[in-house]
Amino acid sequence: MPTIPRIDALHAEMTAWRRDLHAHPETAFEEARTSDFVAEKLSSFGVEVHRGLAKTGVVGTLRAGSGRRAIGLRADMDALHVHEANTFAHRSRNEGRMHACGHDGHTTMLLGAARHLAETRAFDGTVHFIFQPAEENEGGGRVMVEDGLFEKFPVEAVFGMHNWPGIPAGQLAVMPGIMMASFDIFEIKITGRGAHAGMPHHGVDAIVAGSALVQALQAIVSRGVSPVDAAVVSVTQFHAGDTWNVLPDEVTLRGSARALKPEVQALVEGAMRRVCDGVAAAHGCQVTMRYERRYPPIINTPKEVAMAIAAMTQVIGADKVLTDIQPTMGAEDFAFMLRERPGAYVWLGNGVAGESRMLHNPGYDFNDEILPIGASYWVTLVEQTLSKGALDSP
Ligand SMILES: [Zn+2]
Ligand SMILES: [Zn+2]
């Protein structure tokens, strides 16, 4: 069986929702229109609407039967600060903001599933539809958890889904254990002493020290982390100087560090502090680092992965379910929800190269052909997990 026929019938309407959301992208904690859109749709389906968690977050609650079990399904709603390069009719109307990560599609698929489940109620228990703001950089998932998401809406498990360019359209992928990396950011300030470019010996050259630091940071992963563990340290900004003939006082470096295991994350941070101190001593300058742990890794639990695979298999067939996949060094704030509850985060293929641009690319677009597949996965997961006749205790 491919998708659920009633959801196929919603395909045109879901496509219209998705393109409307795509045309009106909003970034972290400013998803006011998107939040209104979601709340209005949910209440028109007969789903109970709760607003205000993490500012623009929306939780829809749907009950059926008398079962006391509950699960959470989560979609993210935010866009990115990207100038859209696409020229199609549904391109961004908010210049400088773009749904370049497909969260417009995620929101739409969860709305489609909510509509179908509200109409059919072929399950026994409670589903909380979690529409989360600010996935990109700002950790809206963490804020929802801190605002009491799971105290207000208790669930035994929580599930997430992200579209994935590079996986054939409509295939689904999941695996137990670590699937995505931790995400940290750092800012390093190197303070030397400015000097005439022709007389550098009168100063302390912060640019030379900064260059040495960038090079030395590369040895942390290659020499300090076990070759069978994964980590990455990327310096993404190097700011210094204003003119041709002056050595500046100060250099600022910024970047991101990632790892698949918490112990490797800690090792990388410690090694970075040592390298900063060493470069400061070697060059006679001051080096200070601000290191901020942003997102923990995505860690799927085996039982919930098995539930996800069962639902995927029913929707697309076992031959299209991918379980032999590699983790990625990308990160996701759904990890904060997975730290609180067991669950599974899955990838839905958005198309291979030539069909889909990569995430965060200005030419990216969510593939509307996969909307019914994602929505059917959500519905099937609910109907199987909270099946009528299942025992009331998990
Ligand atoms: Zn993204
Ligand atoms: Zn994303």
What are its keywords?
394 residues; alpha/beta; Aminopeptidase; Alpha-Beta Plaits; 2 domains; 8-stranded mixed β-sheet; 4-stranded antiparallel β-sheet; 35% helix; 25% strand; elongated; binds zinc ion
Task: Characterize the structure shown.
This protein is of the alpha/beta class and 394 residues long. It folds into two domains: 264 residues, Aminopeptidase (3-Layer(aba) Sandwich); 114 residues, Alpha-Beta Plaits (2-Layer Sandwich). The protein is 35% helix and 25% strand. It contains eleven helices and 16 strands. It has an eight-stranded mixed β-sheet with strand order 1-2-4-3-5-16-6-15, with helices on both faces. A four-stranded antiparallel β-sheet has the order 10-12-8-13, with helices on one face. A two-stranded antiparallel ribbon has the order 7-14. Strand 1 and strand 2 form a beta hairpin. Helix 2 runs antiparallel to helix 4 and helix 4 crosses helix 11. The protein is elongated, with a radius of gyration of 24 Å. Bound molecules: zinc ion (2 copies). The site of one zinc ion has 4 residues, from loops.
CATH C-level of the largest domain: Alpha Beta
CATH level 3 topology of the largest domain:
Aminopeptidase
Count of individual domains: 2
Give the C-alpha Rg.
24 Å
Number of helices: 11
What characterizes the major β-sheet?
8 strands, mixed
Could you give the order of the helices and strands? HHHEEEHEHHEEEEEHEEEHEEHEHEH
Distinct small molecules: zinc ion
